[in-house]
Fold this sequence. Notes:
Residues 471-566 form the Rcc01698-like C-terminal domain. Pfam families: Phage_portal, Rcc01698_C. The chain is of the alpha+beta class and 717 residues long. The strands form ten sheets. The protein has a six-stranded antiparallel barrel with strand order 19-20-23-22-21-24. A four-stranded antiparallel sheet has the order 11-14-13-12, with no helix packed on it. It is elongated and about 140 Å long.
Amino acid sequence: xxxxxxxxxxxxxxxxxxxxxxxxxxxxxxxxxxxxxxxxxxxxxxxxxxxxxxxxxxxxxxxxxxxxxxxxxxxxxxxxxxxxxxxxxxxxxxxxxxxxxxxxxxxxxxxxxxxxxxxxxxxxxxxxxxxxxxxxxxxxxxxxxxxxxxxxxxxxxxxxxxxxxxxxxxxxxxxxxxxxxxxxxxxxxxxxxxxxxxxxxxxxxxxxxxxxxxxxxxxxxxxxxxxxxxxxxxxxxxxxxxxxxxxxxxxxxxxxxxxxxxxxxxxxxxxxxxxxxxxxxxxxxxxxxxxxxxxxxxxxxxxxxxxxxxxxxxxxxxxxxxxxxxxxxxxxxxxxxxxxxxxxxxxxxxxxxxxxxxxxxxxxxxxxxxxxxxxxxxxxxxxxxxxxxxxxxxxxxxxxxxxxxxxxxxxxxxxxxxxxxxxxxxxxxxxxxxxxxxxxxxxxxxxxxxxxxxxxxxxxxxxxxxxxxxxxxxxxxxxxxxxxxxxxxxxxxxxxxxxxxxxxxxxxxxxxxxxxxxxxxxxxxxxxxxxxxxxxxxxxxxxxxxxxxxxxxxxxxxxxxxxxxxxxxxxxxxxxxxxxxxxxxxxxxxxxxxxxxxxxxxxxxxxxxxxxxxxxxxxxxxxxxxxxxxxxxxxxxxxxxxxxxxxxxxxxxxxxxxxxxxxxxxxxxxxxxxxxxxxxxxxxxxxxxxxxxxxxxxxxxxxxxxxxxxxxxxxxx
Length: 717
């Protein structure tokens, strides 16, 4: 019985696979087995070890983005996954990653297995169906077939084997053997002062030779009195007929320095490292270390890292909804000079002053389009600062034997852009306001957009990091109406229309919701949901709502059809710090993707300080004091106290605890240094309500409001 129909349908079309025959040819006086080559080449040779570490450590430090980036970056038993896989792929040609599940259908961690302990278990036609990992007498079988593989195999090209890749260590074994032999030879020369010190010559007048006893006695005396470092330089007393003849090696006999350097360059060549970076003499391929380091990244680190990430992404595609992985090349310090080439500055006649920041232009003789980020007019000369708009590129995903990647063509669509300021969704205490930007496309093929920000009304624009992670977003089709932030709303219903069919919403249990799952910005209200029901096409219904999260209860019920709906997923938002002076002003954000043509997408937002001011107080109660005045009491909330760890009080994050109170319709303010205040009768004259605000470092909180006089006060009157 064939459980996987796709494999059954194509099994007859697959070619038979096989292993290369293990010949017993002689490769000279160097080891053939992998473990022996590791000891000689990696553990005992400084050039090979440095070359491997240079590539592997750079690969491990490469900035990674994508849905599985956090999983790949996490250490398992202290192991740096990417660095380990890169080293194994270089040395052995094969890298194996065990996928350890969490018991609930997800991935708990990834662990790189030692490649020499892994063997392929093939079917009758030679296609791998599982892998066996053997340590001592224990053997574990890891399934490689099906939608949830337990092991991921990434291998380099091997023209002689269908199952196992070919590493660089074997190709470098000859040069490593020569380099190690030269090292040992030079060490022996140093021990002998780089020459045989000399010879004792017995020159008897009658031509007689030393007897055996005389020769043995002379040898013993020489070793005891003159050999070794402790006797260096000691004068020698010779008997009759003996004389000392000094000896030395010729320069040709001592030319091992050049031999070692040549072998070291061959080792660097085998691993793809510029010899200049290893401190080897006689190499002038690159003008300086910066160029050599750039070549290392372009020719060795990036291709190797892309191979590893593509294999991991494909292997995790059945485990994760978003298993994408990629290197953020724009964040690689060694390639910063290449990024600078994306910038340009041109001067034009003042008659072109109708151009403004944000406009898209083309330059004669330069490929692609350019965005104006700033301009100056000086001495009737217009100077434009431009940034190149990158074109979309298609990267081919690597495939292992037995797997086929088949993606249908997806429309890119126009960029959908939302910018907003919200309280931090964790307990981060911000010192300056922060803008959050979410972007996606109207089609599932949208991948990225370049964004720019203006804080001066569009006079100048500053580039932002590229928007690469698509958020789940859409519009509100049915408003939930008013609701309470203190109880789970089991009656209100939200219906939303997502941007395209590739976006989905999920269910979560109350514990997951309490931990932060299913959080969305609906209009200006932060809310969460437990149940998501697909209604067909791109329409979804959300129920069992948690309303007014993070102090946004003031926005409950203010939504209308067509308002924004943005799911706040980790990694899907671009968070941009703003200066304090931006509070109270509007900032503009423009973005341009491949599907947007010449018209960038623009949005603006009022910076209210919602990300830095404290939340409003709660449980405000006002009671009459019998003399025309009243006493107000309330409970303080904190920007860092949402978890409520001690169950008693929220931590005070502001510089001091202080509040201001005001009665509606009355301009008189009352200040308080604690959560209680007395309101004189004069301040309540003609009032219809009482409000209190907490004073924060960067401004006042939203007011907590209660009606006045209360119903009890009216009945007493």
